[in-house]
Fold this sequence. Notes:
Helix content: over 70%
Radius of gyration: 19 Å
Structural class: mainly alpha
Mean pLDDT: 81
Shape: globular
Largest sheet: none
Distance between the termini: 28 Å
Strand content: under 5%
Amino acid sequence: MKTINVILTIAYRDLIKFVRDRSRIIASLIFPFVFIGALGGGLQANLGKQAGYNFLIFVFTGVLAQTLFQSTASGIISLIEDRENDFSQELFVSPVSRYIIVLGKIIGETLVSLVQAVGVIIFGFLVGVPFQLDIFIRLFPAMLVACLLGGAFGLLVLSNLSNQRAANQVFPFLILPQFFLAGVFSPIKNLPPYLWVLSRIAPMTYAVDFIRNLFYLGKPEYSKVVLYPLYVDMIIIGILFTVFLVAGTIMFIRNERNK
């Protein structure tokens, strides 16, 4: 019970911090408005008929996956800031297992990401993205998977950073290129060889493709927007998640013990 209480406390704290952070809430709403509404709508008006599918929906599914992946990853990396300030400073010197801290952080940031995703979905609905009950049922597990993959990726990055300044410099360099390499805004089926390789080693690629796999399942444009069959995405995500989580946790625990 003590372990569960610690996990829930860490998770609850992250959720409360998000709810009280008005600037972060506003930013999480502005991003989908700009990219789904402006970029998706513009691409649909200019390229939609030529591509053979709705670019507004294409960008919506990409932004949804990107929001879940990035939000959870950046939330995990915020452990560096927490370690230097406020509540977590006391938590790090308390007799609490670092494994518990990591687990609580991943759960908490997953909840935060899901709350942000609700805003993305509502905005998608307002601009005309079609939703049926079966799509929601299919998407929810995929949304959790995207969060967990982002959390494991964030943990791996966190374990190799020593301070907040390094995090602010390194994380954008690792995450921003994935917006384009993962096909959040544009198709990546046909790329030059060097970009193809980079896109396939970007973890966000598989979160985006997994979300699109389940959203477009059974639709005529499925083959035009999805990179790999569902089972391939699941296998790759499972491997990446396991490697990131195990390696990240081991390095994080080792670094904490050396402090």
